[in-house]
Amino acid sequence: MKHQQDDSPDIPNLARRGDPVGPKLPLSAFIICLNEETYLGNCIESLEQCAEIVIVDSGSKDGTATLVQSYIKSGWPIRFIHEPWRGYAGQKQFALDQCTQPWCFNIDADERLDQPLKALMPSLLEAPDDIAGWKVARRPYLIGYGYTPEKARERRNLRLIRKGRGRYDLRQKVHEGIVPDGKVGAARSGSLLHYRPLIIDEQILKENNYSTLKADQQFAEGKPPRPYKMLFGPPLYFCRLYFRNGFWRCGFPGFIQAATGAVYAFLTAAKLYQRHALKTRPNIDDAFSG
User: Fold this and answer.
1) How far apart are CA 52 and CA 75, in angstroms?
2) Residue 45 reports pLDDT greater than 90
3) What is the pTM of this model?
4) Burial class (CB in 10 A: 0-12, 13-18, 19+), 280
5) Which among 158, 157, 175, 179 is positioned nearest to 167, based on CA atoms?
6) At what angle do helices 228-239 and 251-280 cross, to 10 degrees?
């Protein structure tokens, strides 16, 4: 199905907190979404510096389209595009291809730029030509705590890229990232704020889904099972988040965040092991054989 602009007329102005003001940076933000009415508004509000906001929707059934149209009618430089789901990497590459500005910023619907990152953004865009992109830190919102402090963050990921200097690896089914053509720097301050406070019941379901995608990807790539990763991967993952990344600063909410990450590490390794085991020794009910 060919993508198209959403030109729905006479959509009421809903959930808008302010018109975009101030000078714009030569920056396109791109967002992929599906049923993100709850989160998308605050994401858009944090992008007032952007000359262009590209939102690619894969078939929302909630009020996402109405929300976006309220921002468009208020003068926000949004291009709202419908595109059937291509997988995470494929959908983000499609969105990146629609961007027209010299710099492009990948942001999820449940993320927001904090004020230090907004303040730093102009200098990031003035980087020397040999810098193809910038890695940015992300700070999640923890139930029972709130947003983590600046010293307690997830690892930095490449989110800001020059147009034409990076592409997504379409083989990646989950945790997709931009493959840069050139040097990549790390933003010295500022963060993306990740607001999706899932209770543990829902978070474990998410980790289960992501670990399935990751194990399937590794199996398709022919990666062998590594049983030791079931033993050592989870505690190493936990220690990286809890101690090195500073989630110990957030008390038990930080402990829970690190522990659920360890669950993801275990499930990924265990699922890859079982996929290989089923290939070499299919399940057979041999209770009464021989």
Assistant:
1) 11
2) yes
3) 0.88
4) exposed
5) 179
6) 160
